[in-house]
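Quick one from the shared queue. A colleague (R.T.) flagged DUF7702 domain-containing protein as missing a structural entry in our internal table.

Convert sequence to structure tokens.
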Amino acid sequence: MVRYGGIVNIVTIAVFTFYLCVSVYLTARQGLGHSTAWICIMVLALCRLMQTSLDLAATELFPPKSAPNTSYESGVAILTEMGLTPLFMSTSALLNMTTRPKGRRMQWLLLLLNIPLIISLVLIVAGGIDPDSRDTPTFAATEATKAGVALYCACFVILVWATIVIASRLYLADSREIRILTTVVLSLPFFVVDIVYMMCFAFESLFGSQKFNVISGSVTLQLLMQVVMEYIIVGLYLGLGLELPSKAARLREIVVETDYDMLAGTFLWKLYERGSALAAGTIMPALQFAHWLLGRILRA
């Protein structure tokens, strides 16, 4: 008989397997140059698949409330927290897909936001689980893990500020950029809940409660505050991706909107004309000579 936590893990495996397939499809459909958000979702899906697989194994191998801090549980705790990094990066990449409302300064800010996110990822992986809690099912976070989760919180504040600034320039956006901004704005409330859950787990020792512990805490709280929130956020992002034009459609738009008079004055166009003239001047005499020689051979 599969326990309650095991059922949640099985459903999560099914959902993120589907999300992984959709993100791979979107990456192939839109090209690697425009697929940073979908690649990050692929990483998130793989992270969640590994986490839930380990958690399912630990749930079935050990009775509840008595599981020791095995490598299974340590991996579950680390993967649960570090999954926020690709989720942040995918959100930042979506905001970077806007052009006119974003501006160059905001573009650099969103790119530089990846630096503290990577630092927080390193801190969480290096921090792991408090060694003093290895003989109990509490699995307390280390100081490094707490610093990494706190850095997530700071990054989220910057992300919200960037979203507000870009959304305030909505009058500059086209229909595609409006869909992107709307999707990101809709995802932020669910993002807040996910961040709050991770903060409660990291700093649960301050409150003396284990309800938010990703290993021994309430499965229902984790389901409602973390698992379902990520279902919704990733579902919104992938739904947006399916509405965006493919790589072939973008190329068609570029060709239609190209000003050929302006193109003719560019350096590359002039270089193309010179190269074409040189090729024609070299190849045509050779073709004429080959035609003359073939005629002579046939007549002989």
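Residues 259-299 form one domain.
The mean pLDDT is 81.
Added to the table.
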